[in-house]
Amino acid sequence: MDKKTSERMNLGKLNYILLAVSALLLIVGYFIMSLNDIVISPILLAIVYVCLIPLALLIRTKKTD
């Protein structure tokens, strides 16, 4: 990646942790859906897609020099 792209993304450790938790919860949500539980899985998937993933991408961490 060039310098301009890396500055624009500016993802820190917290962002990657939140993205990893989001991916794990997506896997859990789809697994629960495969067990024919149509109450919990859509709620879990909606929370991940609407809240966690945007939160993980929008949180800014303090830059240390």
Outline the fold blueprint.
Elements: H1 3-9, H2 13-34, H3 40-58
Structure description:
- This protein is mainly alpha-helical and 65 residues long.
- The protein has one domain.
- 74% of the residues lie in helices and 0% in strands.
- It has helices spanning 3-9, 13-34, 40-58.
- Helix 2 (13-34) runs antiparallel to helix 3.
- The two termini are 21 Å apart.
Q: Into which percentage range does the β-strand content fall?
A: under 5%
Largest sheet features: none
> Which structural class should the secondary elements be placed in?
mainly alpha
**Roughly how many Å is the radius of gyration?**
15 Å
The figure for the number of domains is: 1
Number of strands: 0
Distance between the termini: 21 Å
Give the helices and strands as they follow along the chain.
HHH
Number of helices: 3
Show unreliable segments: none
> Globular, elongated, flat, extended or rod-shaped: what is the shape?
elongated
Estimate percent helicity.
over 70%
Q: Quote the average pLDDT.
A: 87
The quaternary structure here is single chain
